[in-house]
Amino acid sequence: MAPTRERGRRDSARRQQILDTALELFATRAYEDVSVDDVCDRAGVAHGLISYYFGGKRGLFAEAVRQAWNELLEYERPREDEQDATERIHGFVRRHFEYVAEHPHRFTTLMRTGHADREVYDIVIGARGEALAELQLSLGCPVNPPAQLRAALRGWMGYLDNMTLDWAFHRDLDLDVVTDMCVQALIGAVRATAGERYDPDVELATLSRVAAIPTLATSAAQPRA
């Protein structure tokens, strides 16, 4: 039994080593520019192990995407000490950015799936569905929300993706600031589904005034006291 367990641990460690290497390479290069030889040489493993563990390059990429999504979803989940919707949503968004800060390669891989086949597509759709369900649960939404609310939540998730890409590239906004921006955007999106209307002249004046402030980005980047 002991040799079998030890062999199992070695297999698991070697498989994970290949996955970690693949995540790094797929994050920095296009899928077509990463070869099986590249992964094996960087990981220091025999070339046949890609087929043995993953069935080839496509299977390796699919598993890398699956792992990255699972890690992100698990990290974002509400904590036991977050009792109300405000705490859960702020925690969800903040942990989203914390994960990206700690694992930039993994997030980049998640965003580079435009060429993906059906297996990868299904993984991404399933993960996004799980993230949306977690968001609805944190907000106290029904399982099947009305069309406007569903569209608003899905639209906000796209906003969060693009905010994260910008933040990951520039890193010129404090974590508290970017978290608050995303939470406020969510509040605005959800509030709009309730039919609340604003004076268009007032709104346009506000947008113009805020967008014209040259020190906005600089002041926002400063950490809170």
Automatic annotation (TrEMBL):
SUPFAM superfamilies: Homeodomain-like, Tetracyclin repressor-like, C-terminal domain. Pfam families: TetR_C_46, TetR_N. Keywords: DNA-binding, Transcription, Transcription regulation. Residues 12-72 form the HTH tetR-type domain. Transmembrane segments: none annotated. Residues 35-54 bind DNA. InterPro entries: DesT_TetR_C, Homeodomain-like_sf, HTH-type_TetR-like_transc_reg, HTH_TetR, Tet_transcr_reg_TetR-rel_C_sf. It comes from the Bacteria. The keyword Heme does not apply. This is TetR family transcriptional regulator. It comes from Rhodococcus jostii.
